[in-house]
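thought: user wants a sequence for this fold. calling inverse folding tool.
action: design(structure=
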């Protein structure tokens, strides 16, 4: 599409938007964020606004390698809006996580399709993780490259990452045990391995002394061929972080703890809700049953 055409479409959308007043910032903000707000993404945000899911889009919380996260408010209260950039240059890095996932073998391997499937996967993983009794954002909705989820924070201020929290050895022990228990619940109850767990993807709700697991787009099911390797890597990351607080448990011992089933565990069966999501919410991804290279 030519720049002129994009500008024209942007203007049309902005005119519509002016009526709905969903964005706090002016259009220069959108231009600066052009990578995120391509025309289809703006249209999608607008459709979320029409549904009331987003009534006001606030500031940027994070600009990552593949996605931007924004704060917003709407009929579900405070939400985080994670927008995967279609133009992301690192999307190739997603391949190993999604292409071998048995849940996603039917997707077409184009850039867009991988990103849409990735967004859907993060939504589904969040559902499963919440069901497993792990504190994580509750997913609100998704479509194409946008995921809307519960905002983990208060009054517009996100909880800090584990890496930024000042704590003594006793606090560290508490969070360490919580995190290992969360990994165990994820493994045993949800049949998932996070696959990118580190002090960056764990937030701390200081008031409730609770670890919050985020960024689960790459989490894989246990039947993924690399699940074991990803689990070991997660364990090593957690070990490395907590070493400075005098915690030094063996990798093997931790892995055993994570795989241990307890009496109170309920195993989450493959979810009819997930199938419903497959069939309904994201028709675009689902249409493409044929595999094309
Ligand atoms: N649900 C949420 N509530 C509050 N902050 C969030 C939420 N999700 C993400 N964030 C913030 O945005 C940052 C990036 O989000 P993340 O999901 O880790 O994306 P990335 O793939 O870019 O690492 C997080 O470190 C966190 O600070
Ligand atoms: Mg992250």
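)
observation: tool returned 293 residues.
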């Amino acid at each position: 599409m030519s720049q002129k055409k994009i500008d024209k479409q942007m203007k049309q959308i902005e005119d519509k938007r002016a009526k709905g007043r969903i964005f706090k910032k002016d259009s220069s903000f959108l231009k600066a964020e052009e990578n995120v707000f391509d025309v289809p993404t703006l249209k999608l945000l607008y459709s979320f606004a029409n549904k009331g899911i987003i009534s006001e889009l606030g500031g940027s919380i994070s600009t990552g390698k593949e996605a931007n996260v924004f704060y917003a408010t709407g009929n579900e209260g405070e939400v985080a809006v994670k927008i995967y950039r279609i133009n992301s240059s690192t999307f190739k890095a997603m391949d190993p996580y999604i292409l071998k996932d048995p849940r996603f073998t039917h997707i077409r391997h184009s850039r867009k399709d991988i990103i849409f499937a990735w967004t859907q996967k993060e939504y589904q993983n969040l559902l499963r993780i919440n069901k497993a009794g792990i504190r994580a954002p509750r997913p609100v909705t998704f479509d194409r490259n946008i995921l809307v989820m519960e905002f983990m924070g208060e009054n517009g201020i996100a909880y800090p990452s584990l890496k930024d929290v000042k704590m003594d050895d006793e606090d560290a022990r508490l969070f360490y045990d919580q995190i290992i228990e969360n990994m165990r619940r994820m493994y045993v109850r949800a049949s998932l391995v996070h696959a990118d767990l580190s002090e960056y993807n764990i937030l701390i709700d200081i008031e409730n002394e609770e670890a919050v697991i985020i960024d689960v787009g790459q989490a894989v099911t246990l039947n993924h061929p690399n699940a074991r390797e990803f689990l070991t890597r997660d364990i090593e990351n957690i070990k490395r972080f907590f070493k400075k607080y005098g915690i030094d448990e063996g990798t093997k011992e931790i892995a055993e703890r994570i795989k241990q089933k307890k009496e109170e565990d309920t195993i989450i069966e493959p979810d009819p809700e997930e199938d419903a999501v497959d069939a309904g919410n994201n028709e675009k991804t689902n249409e493409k049953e044929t595999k094309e290279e």
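thought: summarizing for user.
answer: Here is the designed sequence. The first strand starts at residue 56 and ends at 63.
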